[in-house]
Design goal:
533 residues, alpha/beta, two-stranded antiparallel ribbon, 22 helices, 61% helix
């Protein structure tokens, strides 16, 4: 029943798109573009680890329903990935029916499905914005800004955690607003499902159920619900909470043995700093342990990696939204969305600043803030467009902003993940992390193959993603490269991550000597290829 209802709603959304040719064309072109370029990106550090989570969970599910079940502690032995397994199970379960065996085929499938999940999130973002702005051009502007944010654009093709989680957060926010406005049992059930799937990727999605309950409580306190409807609201809220608990457990098999104990054990592992003893982040010119980063780490990364025009419009949108929230009740027309966008952006940001959980690798763990950041920026643009004396100027600025976004994506491709705006300053490779996930190893390995077209080649790599990108090569190319210790290698590839590799790279000391190739973007070096023998 619930599945049929969800499909019915999806068909309704798609029919709305079909009736609006501009919107339909926009999403169709974006879909075609994504499918065309999904193979251009390299492989990342976490891909084998995430895939391992999917397969170990699948094996546990099979065991659970067999005569020889094994406990999760045994099924998860050796597991490193700590996020929820929902999306990884989907990816792992596609391999067999698609007859995918080779590592390159598997990774290409993963990249395509990750993009499709993000595309659905962009579709949901359009409908979320339409509840606030009621203008398809403003909504398309918001989606365009979201897509053109360079770092997330890149991650939307290979990041099965943060990019997919961002999409699920958008869908959860959309179902929340629908449930708050139309408190039916169906909307309660759909919202509980959306929240559970998001939580089963990252537990921080519990923020949405918390906001849902808060908004319902405000409705009662402000007496926005008529007495004859209150009983139905209580029932639908109860359905939401019960279904949420059930769905969380259903789509997170590790919880099946003992839901409460396993859930809190998972939380404690995620928050533990033990696994980060040798993990440092280059921040403002110094390497800092990832469990000792300063309070300003997250706000600074947001300010220097979002396009500068986005930042300026965000500031204007924040001021305008605060004014509207002060002048009008939260549940007045459009204002509930204002409150939701502000809450979903600022509350997690403030919590991270105060509690200082472990975040690293720029702010990818918090990329789910980006849709709310963009929504607030669009609020600022919408407000400025309402002023007749500024309308033409703002339209021109917006067009230039979008053109600049397209140019950045083309110029940086396929390394949009290392974009910085002018606030980051110059000589960025000395001050901030660049290709921390190692996508550029793919290009480095391809250079070695072109340089040595006939020979077997011994290659050493500075980091694990060098090995992952070796698995991402075409099988015939892969066989020509042997990954060996640096003492035995002819070539050494380094993305200068972590203090030792960075020091050798900067000082050009062994093994970072005799550079024969470098991957550079916007003047910054992502990877060096060194012929050491």
């Amino acid at each position: 029943m619930l599945e049929k209802a969800g499909l019915r709603i999806l068909r309704t959304f798609l029919s709305k798109l079909a009736h609006n040719k501009a919107v339909f064309a926009f999403f169709a072109l974006y879909l075609i573009l994504g499918i065309m370029i999904h193979g251009n990106f390299g492989a990342t550090w976490d891909e084998p680890l995430n895939r391992d989570l999917g397969h170990k969970t699948l094996n546990y599910i099979k065991s659970y329903f067999s005569d020889h079940s094994m406990p999760w502690s045994e099924a998860s032995r050796g597991l490193i990935a700590e996020q929820g397994p929902f999306f990884e199970v989907i990816l792992a379960s596609l391999e067999k029916p698609l007859n995918l065996i080779d590592t390159r085929e598997i990774m290409l499938m993963r990249h395509l499905v990750i993009f499709l999940a993000f595309w659905l999130g962009c579709l949901a973002f359009y409908f979320l914005l339409s509840l606030r702005f009621h203008n398809r051009w403003i909504c398309l502007l918001g989606v365009s800004m979201f897509i053109l944010a360079p770092r997330l654009f890149s991650h939307s093709f290979y990041n099965s955690k943060d990019a997919v989680f961002t999409s699920l957060m958008i869908i959860g926010t959309l179902t929340m607003v629908r449930f708050i406005k139309h408190r039916t049992l169906l909307n309660a059930a759909l919202h509980s499902l959306a929240c559970a799937l998001a939580i089963d990727v990252r537990v921080v999605a519990g923020l949405i159920p918390a906001l849902t309950v808060l908004l319902l409580a405000v409705l009662f306190i402000k007496k926005e619900i008529e007495k004859e409807e209150q009983k139905r609201v209580w029932i639908s809220t109860g359905v939401y909470v019960c279904f949420l608990a059930v769905f969380i457990v259903i789509f997170w098999p590790a919880l099946w043995e003992n839901p409460f104990r396993m859930f809190f054990d998972t939380l404690s592992r995620i928050s533990s700093a033990k696994q980060f003893d040798n993990n440092y982040s280059l921040y403002m010119g110094s390497f800092v342990r990832v469990d000792q980063l300063p309070w300003h780490y997250l706000p600074v990364w947001i300010l220097i990696t979002m396009p500068l025009s986005y930042v300026l419009f965000f500031i204007m949108g924040t001021v305008q939204t605060v004014k509207e929230l002060v002048r009008n009740p939260v549940f007045s027309a459009g204002n509930i969305l204002n409150f939701v966008f502000m809450f979903m952006f600022f509350v997690p940001l403030v919590v991270v600043i105060i509690l200082r959980p472990i975040v690293y690798d720029d702010w990818r763990h918090m990329y789910f803030l980006q849709p709310y950041f963009v929504a607030i920026a669009v609020t600022g643009i919408s407000g400025l467009l309402a002023r007749k004396n500024l309308k033409k100027t703002i339209k021109a600025v917006v067009i230039l902003m979008l053109l600049h976004g397209v140019i950045i994506l083309v110029r940086y491709h396929p390394y949009q993940n290392v974009y910085f705006n002018p606030l980051a300053g110059g000589d960025i490779e000395k001050t901030f992390e660049l290709d921390y996930w190692g996508l550029s190893f793919k290009e480095g390995l391809e250079f070695v193959l072109r340089t040595e077209p006939q020979n077997q080649i011994r290659v050493a790599v500075s980091d694990f993603p060098g090995r992952v990108n070796h698995m991402f090569l075409d099988p015939s190319q892969r066989q020509r490269i042997q990954i060996v210790p640096v003492e035995q290698a002819t070539y050494f590839l380094s993305n200068h991550r972590q203090p030792n590799n960075y020091a050798a790279f900067r000082s050009k000391t062994y093994p970072c000597v005799n550079e024969v190739y470098a991957v550079r973007v916007a003047g910054e070096t992502l990877l060096g290829v060194f012929k050491i023998r």
